[in-house]
Amino acid sequence: MPGGSSSQQSSGKGKKNGKSSLTQMLDDIENNPEGHEGFNLEIGDKNIKKNAPRGKQLHTQSQMFRYAYGQIEREKAMQEQNKNLTFSGVISMANDTEIRKRPTIEVAFKDLTLTLTTKHKHLLRCVTGKLSPGRVSAVMGPSGAGKTTFLSALTGKATGCTMTGMVLVNGKMEPIQSYRKIIGFVPQDDIVHGNLTVEENLWFSARCRLSAELPKPEKVLVVERVIESLGLQAVRDSMVGTVEKRGISGGQRKRVNVGLEMVMEPSLLILDEPTSGLDSSSSLLLLRALRREALEGVNICMVVHQPSYTLFRMFDDLILLAKGGLTAYHGSAKKVEEYFAGLGITVPERVNPPDYFIDILEGIAKPKSAVNYKQLPVRWMLHNGYPVPMDMLQNTDGLGASSGENSAHGASEVGSETGSSAGDFWQDLNSNVKSGKDKLQHNVLKSGDLSERRSPGVYQQYRYFLGRVGKQRLREARAQAVDYLILLLAGICLGTLAKVNDETFGVLGYTYTVIAVSLLCKIAALRSFSLDKLHYWRERSSGMSSLAYFLAKDTIDHFSTIVKPLVYLSMFYFFNNPRSTVLDNYTVLICLVYCVTGIAYALAIFFEPGPAQLWSVLLPVVLTLIATRTEKDGVVSYVSNLCYTKWALEAFVISNAKRYYGVWLITRCGSLMESGYDLGHWYRCLILLVLTGIVSRVAAFFILITVHRK
């Protein structure tokens, strides 16, 4: 219901710990409204809040949810009594309820121009206007008009482009990234964790992004408001689902995608096609929820495609973009028909106005007036007194528009043909360097925080991430079981095939072990970071801690680092029966798994899933061949000493060779000298494996915070 009050915050971690359902909770409230165990309907009253003993009334999950649901029911009752008032007005009039105010954000832009660095092509050009708090603005236009690019430019997410013009935040020349903690950006794709429930997704976003000073009961209230306003009560405990495993419907998933940003109480909410794929009723429900947010002073801007007339009337402002990123109209949505009528373009009867205007800009519909659709951006600039670039003035003359465009196009082609190949190479190189510099500044050199919101620290977010990742791994138990089963089979096969040779101290079996364990553990570790890159990029752009995310993933993977060597060794040791102790073999295997897991992290983050798997297979095989090569020249010997496979194999052989005494001493010394191993290097090999694991994790984290999708 109310997406409204600024007191929105993160909610809903575990309703299950209290009463099981919303219906039962509300029944308990109705049957026992004065009960001290939970919540009474007047708990929102200031006097009751002041007189209530702190820490006693709202300290359990059940009590917190009673409080949240009671507040929602109370607001519903107030709305019923004040039907002629807006939700915001009802709340402000209820002076017995404490209201927290959100900071407002006004975004003004002047002559905003975005040019591709490599191709010198305009994506946006001379866009001027303003997005005001408390208003819902719609961005419309034909395909290729730069609608999504416009949103990316406003939020500072456009990389690889040269941006000119001004973007003012609250009238000041400040980077908008400084307000990212109170800016919500809903991407076009539904980037939601499929192996979490609806409530768990919203609750995690709220806990990490709301103010750390906000009490937990208030966070619960915020999330409950969002769940109700988006109509997600029926599926709150349902898995969102993935491509392989069916979950909630596409429309519900879209609403969860929007809810992830609503629960953090944004002051500026940017949405990229939130109604695409939704039916008319779901779109209407979503837009009503957004209008409730606007009533609380939230600045909302959204890209929409082909809205119905009912939806169109719910927008306050309209931005119409023509092809080439030019503005054809920016103003009140109620006055757009009047403006175009002044140009001689009238909407036919029984035709949806936004559809007709987009057809005009696309060139599909031909207006009865003499105005050419290419002239509309220039007409808008002249109408508002904006400066018009010289190359666009020709479009004011309908007769010379096409010829001028063709001549300019031909001139550009001639110019491009005359350019030398060497010049093109250096131009592309320079553009790539600038693009890389932009990405580095965007990803690493973050601007200072001006949002005045103190979000949870790294340690607190680490705890939240730890709980989420642990829950996800438990729900992926089948994949984990398959990994363990494969390790068991590998231990049986390799232990049976590679019997211990007393003259080589089991080198063959240990060589197979290094390859098999490295390969299997790397492939499994790739899943930690390969599958949710999009989720990470979205969470990082909203201000969540990358360090907390990385450490939580690595901490959960330590369970596999400890268990997988045991699983493999339980079969390999039984069938191979080496002389070395189980503890020695287990110690080496733990260090080896820790090392290859760190390497897999770096591969998973740097490469796409396909190449990452290929590298994970090739590396252990190639490095083991180098490490076991008998004829070694200077270069090969030097490279061999840097291979983690050499350290692991040496540690295995040394631990086994130590158990040969008496008559085996001469054989042992000769075999070790031939392989280049030393009995005193066992601890050194283990330390090198652990250090490689640590260094590779540091490298993986550096890649994580610097490399971004193209």
Characterize the structure shown.
- The two termini are 38 Å apart.
- The chain contains 27 helices and 9 strands.
- By secondary structure, the protein is an alpha/beta fold.
- Residues 1-23, 33-59, 84-99 and 398-423 have low confidence and may be disordered.
- Strand 8 and strand 9 form a beta hairpin.
- The protein has a 6-stranded mixed β-sheet with strand order 5-6-7-3-8-9, sandwiched between helices. A 3-stranded antiparallel β-sheet has the order 2-1-4.
- It is a multi-pass membrane protein.
Offer a quick outline of the entry:
By secondary structure, the chain is α/β, with parallel strands linked by helices. The protein is built from 27 helices and nine strands.
Measure the end-to-end span: 38 Å
How much helicity do the residues have? 40-55%
Secondary structure tally, helices: 27
Oligomer: single chain
Radius of gyration: 32 Å
Give the overall silhouette: elongated
Strand content: 5-15%
Q: Biggest sheet, open or closed, and with what strands and sense? A: 6 strands, mixed
| Low-confidence runs | 1-23, 33-59, 84-99, 398-423
| Mean of residue pLDDT values | 78
Helix-strand category: alpha/beta
Could you give the count of β-strands? 9
- Strand order across the largest sheet: 5-6-7-3-8-9
Main location: membrane
Keywords: ATP-binding, Membrane, Nucleotide-binding, Transmembrane, Transmembrane helix, Transport
Subcellular location: Membrane
Protein name: ABC transporter domain-containing protein
